[in-house]
Amino acid sequence: MGYRISKIKNVPVGFNCYYFLIGNYRNHSIINDLFREDFRIIADELGEDNAIIESTYGGNLENELMQSLHKHYNILEQIGMYETRFPGLLIMWKHPSNLDEKDAIVYIPFQAFEKTYSNSSELLQDLVSYAKKENDNLIKRTKRKFKIIKSVGLSINLGILALNIEL
After folding, report:
1. I need a surface site. Which of 27, 92, 131, 152 has the fewest CB within 10 A?
2. What DSSP designation does 9 have?
3. CA angle at residue 95 from 2 to 29, to 5 degrees?
């Protein structure tokens, strides 16, 4: 499902996966165009158990999200710095208000997707299958092209595999 929301309190609870679009991705590129122009298609493909969320123009969602993450992960400065220079996709398996320090989150800059995927169809397929926990191609492909983060403490746990992503 797709949501344009201005505040965290308006983000529905109970989804299996949350994809938050972070930063300014208005310039034209294959990946930015997918998230901006095909937002509705992504939302439809994700189905009713997963959500993709973008902030409304002038909304406070991103700031509230960063404050929520800072409360649990002490990473406000790092994420804030990266989202202004490197817009991207923030992935959570819980609602931001239900996170604790043991919960995995992932931030992948759109720039990394640009260098990893040659077309938006492959990325769309990987986004959907990752959210539905069918496979982890989204992480595997991105990891092949980029060293995945270690220093900021963002991580994702996939069964017995744990990844740390370096921004």
Report:
1. 27
2. G
3. 45
CA distance 39 to 49: 16
Segment 73-122, tens digit of pLDDT: 655 455 555 545 678 898 999 998 888 778 888 888 888 899 999 999 99
Burial of 27 by CB count in 10 Å (0-12 exposed, 13-18 middle, 19+ buried)?
Answer: exposed
Q: Which of 8, 94, 93 is nearest to 55 (CA)?
A: 8
The whole-angstrom separation of Cα 110 and Cα 147 is: 15
Q: What residue has token string 């900021």?
A: 152
CA distance 109 to 94: 20
Structure tokens at 125: 């397929």
Which of 50, 151, 142 has the alpha carbon at shortest distance from 93?
50
The SS3 assignment for 144 reads helix
